[in-house]
Structure formats: C-alpha cells, structure tokens
Amino acid sequence: MIEPSIDVLVEKTGSRFALVVLAARRARQINAYYNELGAGIGGYVPPQVHSLSRKPLSISLEEIAADKVVIAPMEE
C-alpha cells in the first residue's frame, strides 16, 4: 500500500494535475539539494520531513501530506 494515500494528497492539492506538478517540482529541488550537498552552494531547501525513503519523489509526497509544501495561489 502506498503511504501517504493518493486520495489524501489529492484532497490537499485540489486536483491530480496539481499534485503531479507540485510533487515533481519539489522532487527536483530535493534531488538538486542532495547533488549540491558537498559543494557548499546551498541554493535549495533541504527535505522538511524525516523520511526512511531515499527517493526524492517519495520524500516530496510525504512533505505534501504533512502540509510542509503547499500550492501558492496565483496573483492576478
């Protein structure tokens, strides 16, 4: 079984499309953070939840479930 549940994640983001975009964007940021870790650049925010998973996408989904990453409303 997938944890966190997809239904819970869709409720938090509003739609499946928004979930995919948000999770993919955050997973890229987490991956870049781990790649720059030894260089001392520090341009990305580290993971916001403690996770046993090593995959950036799983970590990003856990962050969304914990309300650490949210969609910012678009300004008009």
Q: Radius of gyration over alpha carbons?
A: 13 Å
Largest sheet: none
Number of domains: 1
Cα-to-Cα separation, first versus last residue? 40 Å
Mean pLDDT: 89
Question: How do the helices and strands follow one another from N- to C-terminus?
Answer: HHH
- What is the molecular shape? globular
Poorly predicted segments: none
Strand fraction band?
under 5%
Structure keywords:
76 residues, mainly alpha, 50% helix, 0% strand
Describe the secondary structure blueprint for this structure.
Blueprint: H1 6-13, H2 16-35, H3 56-65
Helix pairs in contact: 1-2, 2-3
Kindly summarize this structure in a few lines.
50% of the residues lie in helices and 0% in strands.
Descriptive notes:
With 76 residues, this protein is mostly helical. The chain has one domain (6-65). The chain has three helices and no strands. The protein has helices at 6-13, 16-35, 56-65. α1 (6-13) crosses α2 (16-35) and α2 crosses α3 (56-65). The longest helix has 20 residues, at 16-35. It is globular and about 35 Å long.
